[in-house]
Write a structure and sequence with these properties.
The complex is a heterotrimer of chains A (about 400), B (about 190) and C (about 350).
Chain A lengths: L19 E6 L8 H4 L4 H10 L35 H12 L1 E6 L15 H20 L5 E6 L5 H13 L8 E5 L14 H10 L3 E4 L15 H7 L4 H10 L2 H4 L5 E4 L6 H15 L10 H8 E4 L9 H16 L3 E2 L21 H16 L15
Parallel strand pairs in A: 1-2, 2-3, 3-4, 4-5, 5-6, 6-7, 7-8
Helix pairs in contact in A: 4-5, 5-6, 10-11
Chain B lengths: L4 E6 L8 E6 L2 E8 L2 E6 L13 E7 L7 E10 L6 E3 L4 E3 L9 E4 L4 H9 L9 E3 L16 E5 L2 E7 L2 E5 L18
Chain C lengths: L10 H4 L5 E6 L14 H10 L6 H5 L23 H9 L6 E5 L10 H18 L7 E6 L5 H11 L5 E9 L10 H9 L3 E8 L14 H6 L2 H13 L2 H4 L4 E5 L6 H15 L10 H8 E4 L8 H11 L5 E2 L12 H7 L2 H15 L3
Parallel strand pairs in C: 1-2, 2-3, 3-4, 4-5, 5-6, 6-7, 7-8
Helix pairs in contact in C: 5-6, 6-7
Classes of the chains: A alpha/beta (about 400), B mainly beta (about 190), C alpha/beta (about 350).
Chain lengths: ~400, ~190, ~350
């Protein structure tokens, strides 16, 4: 995708609504369902019945969520099924309610597959494909406003690259609906490692970003697993540090200058001081990485994207303004994208950045930045009206 | 004269510890029966706007240290279905935890039965679309929340009174008790 | 510069008030230097195995990296920071410190044998007491403890924690388990009982990859991401209720930076408001617990443009948050005068000495 922000909003004099793209929406998380398993070859369906599939459980053991699906209680479907299991209900509660032009579905259920790190390789590959095909038929086919991140066996990089190519070329009707290559922030190796570079080659070929999202199948902290879901929820935010550090210092962006990395539900305000820290480290120890051609902060500024949910709630409203100003002053104003995290409990509506004093910044955050990154048009006369004069 | 009082259901629509959602004059209101009394809350969480009354009733949980729990099943907090903030259904006061610093309440009042009957007969009542949320039963005793300092928000309470067999919502602001004059603070 | 006085600037030009340096290092020059402080069996074991000492120190501080020692502090032919004379020459005298807190990160955490690790820890502490604390009245020190055996940790705190020169117990930022877990609560109680500070410091050995995403390829990559260790430890210590169990516990966070703490704390506060029922003993917003129970050293500073850094410092919400450190002999790209210029007058004096004086009871 190009760097410049392509304005896809309405012509002057037309609607004043602020167009919205939601960059983080979840179909129901449990992949062990007939409507997904039916896409697997019969031999693997039989295998799963007997040997199971997700045998390794949550890293370090489980921390039961305070709600069964970590969901908004009011997102249960009208017939009482789990949130995210009914495309039409999600479209009504989310897309219709807020006038959303496009929503990116990503599948953290696939994360327990951990990119194929813990099943027979062939099954991992088949399962990723099954999830993508189910997504296509049950969501993408139903409503043109749905887009999807591809579930990939990323620990098998060549196979993951092949699945990217399959999604993007095999079925021309949907090739442009696949917008992101999904990783989880729990790789066996840091994601910038050269072993993953075949995936980035495919991403650059099709102009799609890599995406990370909270949850981890591998290891949560450098010192082991937390005991509490509360603690886990806080600690996800430190996934960012080794991810960003790896991409920068492995020289991924020198090798793949057009590659973008989207960090979903992983926060954004930390990027400001992290960029500073990495530049300081580079000044002291930069001799170690002569393959870098730019400052770490420049790579961060140009290649990383972030989502708004969970919305920042600093101790004072003044700090909310200040941290956003620091973020934009650091050159990252084009990198923040609205997300709802529907249907999870810490869901955000799109109102939070709707009424910024800088209207253009509101438009960028709510839809423009995502439109440019993902190539999703903002639909005419959709979205929300600003509530300030 | 336009009435501000609406019958929303019957007293035996709710068992102890239950709640239901009603729509009154285009407002969504949760009605709860707690400690034998009826309370009302506007169905909007002051935190970030979730439908508060679609949450769950729960008791206060405090602790003086890891491994120790003081669970009071008698208290009447509703947890917002979104971010889980807790509010006392009787006062709308939010509670985070004892050491921290509360939806606008409407009072439940007993009404003149005759007037209510007329309202129903004349069809000026916006009888609910009653919707029961699944809530836990609480013991029928007056609820206390000991040693809990209030949080920053107060949910908007609604006046709910009993008239014979009927539950009546009063949207007249003068019907709210003095304590309920606390401002609802809404973050942008 | 923080870590070395600028050539063109004197200490008095930089700061005229008292100075307390809360993080200077003593590096054990060789395991032989510790032999006088350990029982014969441990000397024999080391000699038999040609064991040169635990490996963790080199993991975190590769000996020849500019981060491990500034060029101007490399003494020819000797290990950096390996004697009190070097420390006096490079830091104590030129900075005219009132006090300096000596941290010896020897990497004992990478030695698994529980008794040998405990013996090494004892030896290091006795070495510090005899060859550093006894030789310069400006010095105070952290005592080190083995990393995995809470009973042995408590035993060492009991053994030497009341020595007037020891003011802190060093806890490395990485471990097999997060420090707040219940098995370690007796350790924090011992720290509190002896009126010591818990010093969370760069270092440590994890059982497995020291991140959610495997092992870093490059040293700079590992270093840059190390906030992950500090942040997860702080969150765990709060979540597990260590400050309920030890309401008077003081903790210092050393070599971890501090500009990341507000945004981290805001997220913790937000999550806590929705999820506190799972950890009901956390009865105070987490960022307030940080302000109450923790202080952060200023090496590294990791500052950005002055106007943005000033805002971030405002988010700390306290004039009593920072404590000056050179982190001798480690190398940073820091600007102490720049940092001072962003602080209020009250905060400056606190940072340079007053906070540490109160925190360490100096």
């Amino acid at each position: 995708m190009t760097e410049t922000l392509t304005p896809t909003t309405q012509a002057a004099g037309a609607s004043t609504k602020v167009g919205i793209i939601d960059t983080d929406v979840h179909p129901s998380m449990n992949p062990m369902k007939p409507e997904i398993l039916k896409y697997l070859p019969a031999k693997w369906q039989d295998y799963i019945k007997e040997a199971g599939f997700i045998r390794t459980g949550s890293p370090g053991g489980e921390r039961p969520r305070h709600r069964e699906f970590a969901h908004r209680w009011d997102a249960v479907t009208p017939d009482g099924r789990e949130p995210g299991s009914n495309q039409a209900w999600a479209a009504e509660q989310l897309l219709d309610r807020y006038g959303i032009s496009g929503a990116l579905l990503d599948d953290i259920g696939g994360f327990s597959v951990a990119g194929g790190g813990r099943q027979p390789a062939e099954l991992s590959i088949a399962f990723s494909r099954a999830m993508n095909e189910a997504r296509r038929d049950q969501w993408l086919a139903a409503d043109p406003r749905w887009y999807a991140a591809m579930t990939l066996p990323y620990e098998l990089p060549e196979a993951a690259a092949a699945e990217i190519r399959r999604c993007k070329t095999q079925d021309s009707q949907y090739s442009d609906r696949w917008k992101m290559a999904m990783f989880a922030p729990n790789n066996m190796r840091p994601p910038g490692h050269p072993s993953y570079w075949p995936i980035y080659e495919a991403c650059e070929e099709f102009g799609i970003p890599v995406g990370f999202h909270v949850l981890a199948g591998n290891r949560i902290t450098p010192s082991g697993a937390p005991d509490f879901y509360f603690e886990e929820h806080c600690t996800w935010a430190q996934f960012n540090f080794p991810i960003v550090s790896s991409y920068v210092f492995e020289g991924v962006f020198d090798r793949f200058p057009n590659l973008k990395v989207a960090l979903l539900e992983l926060g954004w305000s930390w990027a400001v001081p992290l960029a500073w820290r990495m530049d300081h480290a580079y000044r002291v120890m930069g001799r170690e990485v002569p393959h870098l051609t730019r400052l770490p902060s420049e790579y961060i500024r140009d290649h990383f994207y972030y989502t708004t949910q969970p919305i920042e709630e600093p101790e004072k409203d003044q700090y909310s303004d200040e941290v956003l100003e620091a973020f934009t002053a650091s050159g990252m104003g084009e990198k923040l994208m609205f997300s709802s995290d529907y249907p999870h409990w810490d869901f955000d509506e799109p109102y939070h950045y709707l009424d910024l004093p800088d209207e253009q910044l509101s438009r960028k955050i709510l839809g423009g930045n995502a439109s440019a990154l993902l190539g999703i048009d903002l639909l005419p006369d959709t979205g929300l009206e600003r509530r300030v004069g | 004269m336009a009435t501000r009082k609406f019958v929303v259901g019957k007293t035996d629509d709710l068992r102890e510890g239950e709640g239901m959602l009603v729509t009154v004059a285009n407002r969504s209101i949760g009605i709860f029966k707690v400690g034998g009394e009826f309370y009302g809350l506007m169905n909007k969480c002051p935190h970030l706007g979730g439908e508060l009354c679609k949450g769950r009733l729960t008791g206060a949980l405090t602790s003086d240290g890891p491994g120790h729990y003081q669970y009071d099943p008698d208290t009447t907090l509703i947890m917002c279905p979104w971010h889980g903030w807790e509010y006392d259904v009787r006062t709308g006061q939010s509670y985070l935890n004892p050491k921290t610093p509360g939806a606008r309440p409407y009072q439940v009042q007993v009404e003149n039965g005759g007037e209510v009957t007329i309202e129903i007969d004349e069809g000026r009542v916006a009888v609910a679309d009653g919707e029961r949320s699944a809530m836990r039963q609480v013991a029928p005793r007056p609820a206390k929340i000991a040693d809990r300092a209030p949080g920053p928000y107060v949910a908007e309470t609604v006046s709910v009174t009993v008239d014979g067999d009927y539950l009546v919502v009063n949207l007249d602001p003068r019907s709210r008790p003095a304590a309920a004059q606390a401002q609802t603070e809404e973050k942008a | 510069m923080t870590t070395a006085l600028p050539l063109a600037t004197s200490r008095q030009e930089l700061w005229t008030g008292p100075v307390i340096d809360v993080d200077v290092h003593a590096n054990v020059p060789s395991i032989e230097a510790l032999y006088p402080y350990m029982d014969g069996i441990w000397v024999d074991w080391a000699v038999e195995r040609a064991y040169k000492g635990p490996s963790a120190a080199a993991t975190h501080y590769p000996p020849m990296s500019p981060r491990s020692c500034r060029p101007e502090w490399r003494p020819g032919g000797r290990a950096p920071a390996s004697s009190v004379e070097l420390l006096q020459e490079h830091i104590l005298d030129p900075w005219d410190v009132q006090y300096a807190i000596l941290n010896c990160y020897y990497g004992v955490d990478s030695l698994r044998h529980p008794d040998w690790a405990a013996a090494l820890a004892r030896a290091v502490n006795d070495w510090i007491a005899n060859e550093w604390l006894a030789r310069d009245p400006r010095l105070r020190a952290s005592l080190i403890v083995p990393a995995r055996d809470p009973a042995a940790m408590v035993a060492e705190i009991e053994r030497i924690g009341d020595h007037p020169g020891f003011v802190q117990v060093l806890l490395p930022a990485r471990n097999d388990w997060l420090w707040g877990m219940r098995a370690f609560h007796p350790v924090f109680k011992a720290i509190e009982r002896h009126d010591l500070v818990a010093g969370l410091h760069m270092g440590g050995t994890s059982d497995g990859a020291p991140s959610s995403t495997g092992y870093a390829s490059w040293y700079i990559e590992q270093y840059a991401a190390e906030w992950a260790s500090f942040a997860s430890q702080i969150t765990n210590i709060i979540s597990e209720g260590v400050f309920n169990v030890c309401p008077n516990l003081r903790m210092s966070v050393l070599e971890g930076g501090f500009l990341w703490v507000p945004v981290w704390g805001w997220r913790m506060n937000k999550e806590w408001r929705g999820l506190h029922r799972e950890v009901p003993w956390v009865d105070t917003p987490p960022l307030d617990l940080i302000r109450e129970h923790m202080r952060f050293s200023t090496a590294p500073i990791d500052a950005g443009p002055p106007e943005l850094t000033k805002k971030a410092i405002g988010w700390l919400g306290s004039d009593d948050f920072l404590m000056f450190a050179t982190d001798y002999p480690h190398g940073y790209d820091d600007d102490l005068p720049g940092l001072l210029s962003l602080l209020s007058e009250n905060a400056r004096g606190n940072m340079m000495a007053a906070t540490a004086r109160q925190w360490y009871r100096l």
